[in-house]
Amino acid sequence: MLFQVYGDNAVYQWIGWILVFCCLIGANELARRTKTGGIIAFLVVPAILTVYFVTIYTAAAMGADWALSNPTYVHMTSWFHYAKLYAATAGCIGFMALKYQWGSIGKSEWFKCFPFVIVAINILIAVVSDFESAIRAWGTTWVSTEGVTLMGGWHNVFNGVAGLLNIACMTGWFGIYVSKKKQDMLWPDMTWVFIVAYDLWNFCYTYNCLPTHSWYCGLALLLAPTVANAIWNKGGWIQNRANTLAIWCMFAQVFPMFQDYSVFSTQSVNNPNVNLTVSIIALVANVLALGYILIRAKKQGVNPWTHEVFKGTKDYEQAIARAE
Q1: Where do transmembrane segments lie in this chain (predicted)?
Q2: How far apart are CA 92 and CA 98, in angstroms?
Q3: For 68-120, what is each residue's pLDDT tens digit?
């Protein structure tokens, strides 16, 4: 098994997983369907949380007991969590600018490459974290600032490389569209080929570097946008992913006890052989995805990053049919 989902808390762990999955899907729908929902979720709430975070750390630096014992301060101290939260939120805001064509930026052709840039940044943040574990504790373990035991080794290297390849698997950087109902920013060329490769890589990242959170942020959080894209929001995967990621990061940053010390907490097995196996699967998936993309691009005689290469495929045609 990948996770320690057994014993007295197993029922709560499954209930927690189902709740996270369903709530993320619901929150994404509220945020994407209306401009007001998006503004509240990705402008108002992050602004309030920023004040909250600054207040906590300022008070902690002054020695205030309430701040020093605050769950966010004690359990969510890693640079990664804050980098991920604000990078994901920046993505959501940029996607809304494109979707609603805010100002000259939202209407400009050059800004259509923003989704590629922000997703690449998000991937690189995780890649750096994987390589950090490899450097800190090759063949052994190290304890993060949050007290989590992490292993370093080839699994980090393999998955770090998979992440770099995953960036190259994003095709048609300028092929960004708006749905007819103005509810979604669409990237039709981001088909199942990329989504599967990304999900495997990102799950492996969480499994390697967030072993106490991976049950939720490595499974529920990844499946929520993927299911939405597959069933009712074709072409909107990257928007779904950014929305759910930002919302989850906000929740986890304020309520770390849900994952870290409650009946819902779920650990991975933290076995180096399991980590290595998952990492190899992620690397192979991304090698195959990039190879397939390059073959399609060569047959079509196009640059896969400046041109769309999946035209004619079922995924692409279903997504582009939703565009204006």
Answers
A1: 12-31, 38-59, 79-98, 110-128, 157-178, 185-201, 213-232, 244-264, 276-295
A2: 10
A3: 999 999 988 888 889 999 999 999 999 999 999 999 999 999 999 999 999 99
Query: For the chain, which residues make up each domain, given as ranges?
Result: 9-321
Of 18-27, 143-152, 188-197, where does mean pLDDT reach its minimum? 143-152
User: Tokens for 186?
Assistant: 């669409």
Residues 256 and 134: beta-carbon distance below 8 Å: no
Report the C-alpha gap between 235 and 318 in whole angstroms: 8
pLDDT digits (tens, 9 = 90+) for 210-232: 999 999 999 999 999 999 999 99
Phi and psi at 211, nearest 5°, equal: -60, -20
pLDDT at position 270: 85
Per residue, what are the HEC states of 43-71? HHHHHHHHHHHHHHHHHHHCCCHHHHCCH
DSSP states of 218-233? IIIHHHHHHHHHHHT-
